[in-house]
Amino acid sequence: MFNFNQQYKISENTISPFYYDGASKIKLYNLDTFSFFTNIPDNCVDLIFADPPYFLSSGGITCGRGKRVSVDKGEWDKSRNIEAVHEFNKKWLLESKRILKKNGSIWVCGTFHNIFSVGFALQELGYKILNNVVWEKQDPPPNLTQKYFTHASEHLIWASKTKYSKHTFNYDLLKTISNGKPMKSVWRDIWKMPSVDNSEKKFGKHPTQKPEEVVKRAIIASSNVNDLVFDPFCGSGTTGVVCKKLNRRFVGIDNNIGYLKIAKQRLAATNNNIEHTLS
Ligand SMILES: C[S@@+](CC[C@H](N)C(=O)[O-])C[C@H]1O[C@@H](n2cnc3c(N)ncnc32)[C@H](O)[C@@H]1O
């Protein structure tokens, strides 16, 4: 089992969590995710929610609040050739498979820049793809070049560890918020608000922050109270905030201290035990 009180080591150096909430069983580490994986035993995580770099930052421009703005998110998101993107994805997805319990599952977010590599890597590694969820953005920025359709969707691939996994799927709970009908894999009702609500940015902004509503739907669909959720690229801590609200245990990693400072403040300001159902 993953031990929350255990101290982890990298090259003989003990690593302390950047943030630890013992009551809610939430931990954040400021590390390279590949180093941290080496500390995690096999078969110990119920669910992985990963929002990895999309590798889309290539000096392009987009429209933000009516102005031309750069699409660059940071060094960590710089475009790479397809082989390098695939090598990166295969490496962390291999480790993710190792640490998942036999009935565990994984969500991976992306756009066309990375999602085909992610999908291919998942299949190469023997995961079973369960769904390709599409969420439609209500307020996508217009395409300034006028050479393409407006990019108005992102993807979340959901996969189980193997084809033999008996993955968690809270079908009835999801039906209750889908007007009594089975929930579809196109999520368009989530975006009744700006991409990320302002209340989720009050401690600072992450350039690719996910809306809590999107993460919440994934977590509640595929995990149960007390399950251990792992996010290898946790950024400003959205997955952790959702896990705290839904009473899931959580471990998040990011190698950017600035983003983790935002995550820490968001987590400290979040009450647990308040939400057991979807709104
Ligand atoms: C798409 S963002 C995640 C955003 C997050 N879902 C949120 O809502 O704030 C990807 C994150 O991965 C982190 N990252 C990139 N490469 C990493 C690595 N090798 N180890 C740890 N973190 C990494 C970046 O710092 C960035 O915060």
Walk me through this protein's architecture.
With 279 residues, the protein is an alpha/beta fold. The chain has one domain: Rossmann fold. It is 25% helix and 24% strand. It is built from seven helices and 13 strands. It has helices at 33-37, 82-99, 115-124, 171-176, 212-222, 238-245, 257-268, and strands at residues 8-10, 13-15, 19-21, 26-30, 45-50, 61-64, 67-70, 100-110, 128-136, 153-160, 186-187, 228-231, 249-254. Strands 3-4-13-12-5-8-10-9-11 form a nine-stranded mixed β-sheet, sandwiched between helices. Strand 1 (8-10) and strand 2 form a beta hairpin. Helix 2 (82-99) packs across helix 3 and helix 5 (212-222) packs across helix 6. The longest helix has 18 residues, at 82-99. The chain is globular and about 50 Å long. The two termini are 32 Å apart. S-adenosylmethionine is lined by residues 32-33, 51, 53, 76, 206, 208-210, 233, 235-236, 238, 253-256, 259.
